[in-house]
Write a structure and sequence with these properties.
About 75% of the residues lie in helices and about 0% in strands. The protein has 9 helices and no strands.
Length: about 190
């Protein structure tokens, strides 16, 4: 037992010795500070789980951090609804305007009417989706679930849920685009 604790304390000492350099290395290669902190934490956790001896802890940590960043970059990113509407040009589909109308506080009776109209159209379009697509869209976009939490709750893979959500968003984009064009006078 003491040998295991001694080995663990050596790992912790080595980790602490290169933590600042490792953190700078990760932050220099990630755009979001929280992602960098998550990667550092994940790599530290992985080091604690290593079963075989690590000869060069610093090299192992940097390699593990690089691998973790690569894995995260390869994973499909979960995009908010607004991200699905945008095209090449920013004005191609003004998703911020729709989100403001759907979720913002109406300022005038016309805003209230438009909000009600959009919600009715969204609900009608959602009812046209297959139940699996509708459920994943509603839970991730309207109820605040993450795909990871939804996967754990439902037993479906994250990839399957992302695929369903993608199909739902493509359908809704087309369906609601016509409404938006009519309202905008395009």
């Amino acid at each position: 037992m003491k040998a295991g604790m001694a080995g663990e304390s050596l790992l912790i000492a080595a980790l602490n010795g290169c933590r600042a350099r490792l953190k700078a290395f990760i932050r220099g290669r990630t755009a979001v500070r929280e992602d960098a902190d998550d990667i550092l934490q994940e790599v530290s956790y992985q080091l604690m789980k290593v079963e075989q001896p690590v000869e060069n802890v610093a090299a192992w940590l940097f390699r593990a951090a690089r691998n973790e960043m690569t894995d995260r970059a390869r994973k499909k990113r979960e995009l908010p609804l607004a991200g699905w509407f945008g095209g090449e040009e920013e004005e191609d589909y003004p998703e911020d305007e729709l989100a403001e109308t759907l979720f913002g506080a109406p300022q005038t009776p016309e805003d209230e009417y438009l909000k009600q109209l959009l919600w009715e159209e969204l609900e009608a379009a959602l009812s046209e989706l297959p139940p699996a697509q509708r459920d994943v869209f509603i839970k991730t976009e309207l109820q605040g679930y993450t795909v990871k939490v939804l996967a754990a709750e439902s037993g479906d893979s994250e990839q399957a849920l992302l695929s369903r959500k993608h199909k739902a968003v493509l359908y809704l984009r087309t369906r609601l685009r016509n409404l938006y064009d009519d309202l905008a006078g395009n």
